[in-house]
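Support request from a user on the community tier.

User writes: "When I paste my structure tokens into the form, the page sometimes reloads and wipes my input. The last time it worked, I copied everything first. Here is what I submitted, just in case something in the input itself triggers the reload:"
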């Protein structure tokens, strides 16, 4: 008894065992793995993208009959993605999130390492050629700007939002974080200086004169002179808070585009 206690053993016939890895992951297991993936990311853009991709996978996985989380199931998920109007880049991004989820599930002791290796071997969608994107013409851009009601303060904010998106080509997260101090004079030209974008890349973006005129009009109407350029507006039609999330910009563009 004393010897067993000294070496850290147990004499009651019971021993601590590690949890056996599973082949069928239930919703709590998937949520635990999703949290582990999100905690390992630092970029807000990556957090948003991976969270959306993993939630989409969980929704599909739980809607199917009880399946084992293995290479065959992930291949079926890839086929279901290919049947949707998704580009190959979008499909490969979804699969990258699935592979990351499998790795974290293995590290948490929820999934067998053999199954995780099989999932990582699932091939992505083939990219044939170079996508040209979905670009707006000059006429379509003018029509989109006309959808904003410039009479109200909210309409002026939506108008300057669309103007900067079209004239400077900023991402939503970049626009929501844009400050008045970022717009500077460089060699007789207005620019957004040293903008830190996706992946920590720093670039300088020229600001056309017509965009700068709209920005000045917005600053005059809102009374904003320093800090974040675009901010929330309460129900009373007044400036509120110190900014808003990129989701607001998405909602603004989506609402205006529907009017067309």
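"...and here is what came back when it finally went through:"
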């Amino acid at each position: 008894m004393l010897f067993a206690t000294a070496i850290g053993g147990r004499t009651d016939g019971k021993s601590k065992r590690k949890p056996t890895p599973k082949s069928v992951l239930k919703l709590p297991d998937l949520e635990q793995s999703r949290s582990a993936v999100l905690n390992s990311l630092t970029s807000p853009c990556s957090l948003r993208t991976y969270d959306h991709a993993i939630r989409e996978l969980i929704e599909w996985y739980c809607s199917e009959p009880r399946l084992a989380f293995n290479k065959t199931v992930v291949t079926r998920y890839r086929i279901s993605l290919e049947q949707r109007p998704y580009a190959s880049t979008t499909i490969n991004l979804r699969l990258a999130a699935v592979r990351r989820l499998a790795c974290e599930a293995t590290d948490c002791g929820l999934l067998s390492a053999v199954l995780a290796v099989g999932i990582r071997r699932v091939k992505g969608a083939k990219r044939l050629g170079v996508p040209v994107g979905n670009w707006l013409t000059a006429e379509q851009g003018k029509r989109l700007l006309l959808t904003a009601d410039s009479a109200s303060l909210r309409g002026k904010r939506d108008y300057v939002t669309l103007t900067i998106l079209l004239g400077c080509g900023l991402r939503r997260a970049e626009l929501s974080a844009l400050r008045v101090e970022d717009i500077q004079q460089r060699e007789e030209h207005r620019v957004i200086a040293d903008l830190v974008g996706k992946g920590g890349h720093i670039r300088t973006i020229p600001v056309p004169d017509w965009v700068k005129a709209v920005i000045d009009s917005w600053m005059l109407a809102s009374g904003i002179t320093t800090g974040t350029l675009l901010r929330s507006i309460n129900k009373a039609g007044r400036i509120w808070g110190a900014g808003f999330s990129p989701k607001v910009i998405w909602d603004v563009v989506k609402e205006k585009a529907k009017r067309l």
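Agent notes: The reload is a front-end session timeout and is unrelated to the input. The first helix runs from residue 2 to 6. The chain has eleven helices and five strands. Escalated to web team.
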